[in-house]
TrEMBL record:
UniProt-listed InterPro entries: DBL_dom_sf, DH_dom, PH-like_dom_sf, PH_domain, SOS1_NGEF_PH
PANTHER family documented for this protein: RHO GUANINE NUCLEOTIDE EXCHANGE FACTOR 4, SPERMATOGENESIS-ASSOCIATED 13
Molecular function GO terms recorded: guanyl-nucleotide exchange factor activity
Any one GO CC term of the record: cytoplasm
Keyword Lyase among UniProt keywords: no
Lineage: superkingdom: Eukaryota
Protein name: Spermatogenesis-associated protein 13
TM stretches of this protein: none
Domain DH, chain residue ranges per copy: 1-161
């Protein structure tokens, strides 16, 4: 009411995009919090506060708290946009006039915008404190315990999404550096680099190719190093990991490829039964690659569950 309403009236000073960056989805948070507060007040026992049962209220609304994720991830962009405007006196005066008009407490706008970020991190701490002073016999004990875990998960989800956004930024910069890129962008399907390194790829004809591999969620991209400039990579191909099974391969003669292998593993397409054979330099490299491939499947499954 103090800032957004006034900003929207001054179309000459703010574009819709600027307001979207500065305030994010704070109005959605406001609507959600009003409902949460209403339900929380219903659960509060004014006459005998120690008999209040508020745990269920957090559990009921736990999915709704996920909207804080968008706000927290947008917050760094909001700070950058705001600091650009604050370099001009007219914006500093405008925001201060908004604050005085609405008789808000003496905090600058950036302080107000930081509040939701601080708030979502405080819930697990407050519930942990409440749990400490609630006896196990109390009717609310189990719900508070579950609410504490749920709100801790919300905070973790926000941190995970923040980390993922940073990872997406890195992937975009990485792809630009690859020469002769073909096909869709990595980010069309993936959001995280899980493992990378050198492997020897062996073809059905027994030909060995030294390649640099990048395992993302959903896909394995391989590149060739420039012969002279070893820091330059040329795009070669990719493998869709959603169709694949990882198979450990013993040292010695491989019957599928009719060649001797060491520190090898296979990636087999479950639908077409096409086989890709890879050899690592050392046993520990092979172990790391196989673990990374298992981790990739787990990540994909978790992402599905998290939506």
């Amino acid at each position: 009411q103090g800032y957004i309403r006034q900003c929207r009236k001054h179309t000459g000073m703010f574009t819709t995009a600027q307001l979207s960056t500065i305030f994010g989805n704070i109005e959605d948070i406001y609507k959600f919090q009003r409902k949460f507060l209403k339900d929380l007040e219903k659960q509060y026992n004014k006459e005998e506060p120690h008999l209040s049962e508020i745990g269920s209220c957090f559990l009921q609304h736990q999915e709704g708290f996920a909207i804080y994720s968008e706000y927290c991830n947008n917050h760094p962009s909001a700070c950058i946009e705001l600091s650009k405007l604050m370099k001009q006196g007219k914006y500093r005066h405008f925001f201060e006039a908004c604050r005085l008009l609405q008789q808000m407490i003496d905090i600058a706008i950036d302080g107000f915008l930081l509040t939701p970020v601080q708030k979502i991190c405080k819930y697990p701490l407050q519930l942990a404190e409440l749990l400490k002073y609630t006896t196990q016999e109390h009717r609310d004990y189990n719900n508070i315990k579950a609410a504490y875990e749920a709100m801790k998960n919300v905070a973790c989800l926000i941190n995970e999404r923040k980390r993922r956004l940073e990872s997406i930024d890195k992937i975009a910069r990485w792809q630009v550096s690859i020469v002769d890129w073909e096909g869709p962008d990595v980010l069309a399907r993936s959001s995280e680099l899980i493992h990378s390194g050198e492997l020897t790829k062996i073809s059905k004809q027994g030909k060995s190719q030294q390649r640099t591999f990048f395992l993302f969620d959903h896909q394995l991209v391989f590149c060739k190093k420039d012969l002279l400039r070893r820091d330059i990579l040329y795009y070669k191909d990719r493998i869709d990991m959603d169709e694949m099974a990882i198979v450990d391969t013993e040292d010695g003669r491989d019957k599928d490829f009719n060649t001797n292998v060491k520190n090898a593993f296979k990636i087999i397409n479950r639908a077409t039964e096409e086989i890709h054979l890879f050899c690592a330099k050392k046993p520990e490299d092979k172990k790391r690659w196989m673990e990374a491939c298992e981790s990739e499947r787990r990540r994909v499954q978790e992402d599905k569950e998290m939506g």
